[in-house]
UniProtKB/TrEMBL annotation:
Pfam families, sorted: Beta-lactamase
Name of this protein: Beta-lactamase-related domain-containing protein
Organism: Coleophoma cylindrospora
Family: Belongs to the peptidase S12 family.
Superkingdom, natural source: Eukaryota
Beta-lactamase-related domain boundaries: 21-348
């Protein structure tokens, strides 16, 4: 027996509340179809200390979902004849950016997009983990765009042609955008995507001043024993409750085009819809993004997109996940016949943590949220 709209909406709200019970401070979600938003909800707290509720107005760090924005700009430049997927970094970038980073010179645009260039991720370097997210972090520091590259100036142990997820790939693609256009990457993202789609609450933190920054919640991160061992705890961070640190004094400048954007589920579902329907570039560019290869943990890798087949049988989804200091997020659309785009963002980070109590990922991947999203959007048909 099918459920009513009110029953489905209650189940969706319950999925968010379950995340709060599991230890996520705050969470926000949107479900959209081609007709518009069909449901939005929020649960938990934007600020644990003051008990300020999280709301749908909050903006969140989106982590690696940023890479989707970057890929769209890159593919637009390919369509305009300003780039070729076969171009290498050596074709476009100054020597000082690539000369000491293993496999960087010969890395093609296509390989960078698909994480198969064999370039190490600065995010995995043990020294960077301490200085970028842990006990050595200066929360007030504004990282330069090239600063993370110094952590991987060495031969790479990775084999070109094999998928190895790397933030460095998209740091480099940010520099490619700047070299080809002569403008800051953040300005090109804004001109080509944000303004075009009216994504009014989205910006690149540390590189743009934006009024939506006033709507940021506190950013929390799980302080598991694994995190303490790998990163340590920044002395400037408080611990509002056991196993959780408040990383609000920090910023996302170190992430730049690899993961530094801030947005809302509303804006991200607009982006997902525009990509799904090839409204922001050509269908051939969409086909490139969706050229999927086997990867890991039930995911396939395309050119900046993931494909995920729900282990519970709730459809097959395209999009991206994100996790940075203080935030986790998901942006997915169902790839077959369902008219359904979802985004869930949470003000808790999980990087370098090992197993954690909950996250935006868990809302989408482990529970019945996708089931209810499909049921609700089916009522719109």
């Amino acid at each position: 027996m099918s459920q009513s709209r009110s029953e489905i909406e209650a189940a969706l709200s319950g999925a968010l509340q379950d995340a709060i019970k599991d230890g996520v401070p705050g969470v926000s979600a949107v479900i959209r179809t081609s007709k518009g938003v069909v449901w939005q909800g929020a649960a938990g707290l934007a600020n644990i200390e003051t008990e300020l509720p999280a709301s749908s107005a909050n903006v969140f760090g989106i982590g690696s979902i940023t890479k989707v924005f970057v890929a769209v700009v890159i593919l637009q430049l390919v369509e305009e004849g300003k780039l070729k997927l076969s171009d290498t970094l050596e074709d476009h970038l100054d020597e000082y950016l690539i000369q000491d980073v293993g496999n960087a010179k010969a890395a093609s645009i296509a390989a960078l997009l698909s994480h198969s260039a064999g370039v190490e991720s600065w995010e995995d370097d043990p020294v960077w983990i301490v200085e970028g997210r842990g006990s050595g972090l200066d929360p007030q520091k504004h990282w330069g765009k090239a600063d993370p590259l110094k952590y991987i100036q060495r031969p790479s142990p990775l084999e070109p042609g094999k998928i190895s997820y790397s933030n460095t790939n998209f740091t480099y693609l940010g520099f490619v955008i700047e070299k080809v256009t002569g403008a800051p990457a953040e300005a090109e993202i804004r001109r080509r995507i944000l303004e075009r789609l009216d994504l009014s609450d989205t910006f690149l933190e540390g590189f743009e001043t934006h009024p939506a920054s006033a709507k940021l919640p506190h950013r929390y991160h799980f302080a598991t024993e694994t995190f303490k061992s790998a990163a340590g705890i920044c002395p400037a961070f408080s611990q509002p409750r056991e196993g959780l640190i408040d990383a609000t004094p920090s910023n996302l400048s170190v992430e730049w085009t690899a993961g530094g954007m801030v947005s809302t589920p509303n804006d991200l579902t607009k982006l997902g819809l525009a990509i799904r329907d090839a409204k922001i570039f050509s269908k051939s560019s969409l086909a490139i993004m969706q050229d999927f290869k086997e990867w890991t943990r039930g995911f396939e890798m395309g050119h900046s997109l993931f494909r995920y087949k729900s282990i519970q049988g709730y459809g097959t989804w395209c999009g991206h996940l994100g996790s940075v200091l203080g935030f986790t997020g998901v942006m997915f659309w169902e790839e077959s016949s369902a008219d359904c785009v979802v985004s869930v963002l949470a003000n808790v980070g999980t990087m370098h943590c090992g197993p954690v109590p909950g996250s935006a990922y868990d809302v989408v991947l482990k529970g019945d949220f996708l089931k209810y999203a499909l049921e609700l959007t089916a009522l719109e048909d």
